[in-house]
Amino acid sequence: MARVLVTRRLPDGGIDPLVEAGHELVTNDEDQPFTHAQLCAAVTDVDAVVCLLTDRVDDAVFAAGGDRLKVVANVAVGYDNIDVGAATAAGVAVCNTPGVLDETTADLAFLLVLAASRLASTAEADLRSGRWHGWGINQYLGRDVHGATLGVIGYGRIGQAVARRATGFGMDVLHHTRHDTGVPGWTDDLDDLLARSDAVTLHVPLNDETRHLIDARRLALMKPTAVLVNTARGPVVDEDALAAALEADQIFAAGIDVYEREPEVHPRLLAAPRTVLLPHVGSASTQTRTRMAQLACEGVVAVLAGKRPPNLVYAG
Ligand code: GLV
């Protein structure tokens, strides 16, 4: 039996794999993230950690965990909050939750394509605040989604799931990855995809190569009628440049679920016109969040049993 720290309350049923394996649980029942200092203090006598993307797991955490700490499992597919280099140096295995959130996240990305294209948030905000005084033929004129071209940046499981939805809506789909996918619509030229797309959706992980991938120069390549959707990670987009592009009518609209400095939202982006802004809810369905928690816990159970789980990012 091992001791496993679960850094925040998980959905009901999420920790079942740990319970079934008979591990002792150390929990944070507050549903508030630990501070970094609290996290360091909490890892000193555990064999494993199940953490969330709100936890920064860096060399200080691995140092506090010492030789006893064997595995950290992130309840997220993205793991930019974990310093994998420091995990490597400390010999700690890292797991994530690939595969189980693709369709749910793709649903939300497509929701943002639709909502941003049709100015849904602007129209609803007017209605709620009493600024809507009756139907008008020139009101809230959005852009058609059907018949438009969707540019998918990053063509992993989530990007492909969004592309399937787009096909069903009668869109043409382009996609960009560095390596040829062999699928029609592939381009190695990101700038060309940006110039040709009516909606652009981001599905790349956050790393040194993708930080501010969408910057002022690239926003300027987009059509003035185009919408930008980000359900990946906030820092992939330069938020200040995005706000400026919206203010200057350089692009039509934006649908954003992730932010550079969560939970802060850039004040200029909050004030920018024609945005749909959601609080990082891409994978937020009961079924998917429960399955994500279980998958992370299954990874911990496997590593502690000396097995190699399918959701291993790094073997330790
Ligand atoms: C959520 O943002 C995830 O990476 O799973």
Indicate the low-confidence ranges by residue numbers: none
Summarize the biggest pleated sheet: 7 strands, parallel
CATH top level of the largest domain is: Alpha Beta
Total domains, how many?
2
- Examine the coordinates and then state which fold CATH places here, giving the name of the CATH topology of the largest domain: Rossmann fold
Beta-strand fraction estimate: 15-25%
Structural class: alpha/beta
**What is the number of E strands?**
13
Distance, first to last CA:
20 Å
Mean pLDDT: 97
Q: What's the arrangement of secondary structure elements?
A:
Blueprint: E1 3-6, H1 16-20, E2 24-27, H2 36-42, E3 48-51, H3 59-65, E4 71-74, H4 84-90, E5 93-95, H5 102-117, H6 120-128, E6 149-153, H7 157-168, E7 172-176, E8 186-187, H8 190-196, E9 199-202, H9 216-221, E10 227-230, H10 239-247, E11 253-256, H11 267-271, E12 275-277, H12 286-304, E13 312-314
Parallel strand pairs: 1-2, 1-3, 3-4, 4-5, 6-7, 6-9, 7-8, 9-10, 10-11, 11-12
Antiparallel strand pairs: 5-13
Bound molecules: glyoxylic acid.
Glyoxylic acid is lined by residues 53, 76-78, 101, 282-283.
Tell me about this structure.
The longest helix is centred in the C-terminal third of the chain and has 19 residues, at 286-304. This protein has a seven-stranded parallel sheet with strand order 8-7-6-9-10-11-12, sandwiched between helices. A six-stranded mixed sheet has the order 2-1-3-4-5-13. Helix 5 (102-117) packs across helix 7. The chain is of the alpha/beta class. The chain has two domains: 3-100 and 286-314, Rossmann fold, CATH 3.40.50.720; 102-277, Rossmann fold (3-Layer(aba) Sandwich). The chain contains twelve helices and 13 strands. The structure holds glyoxylic acid.
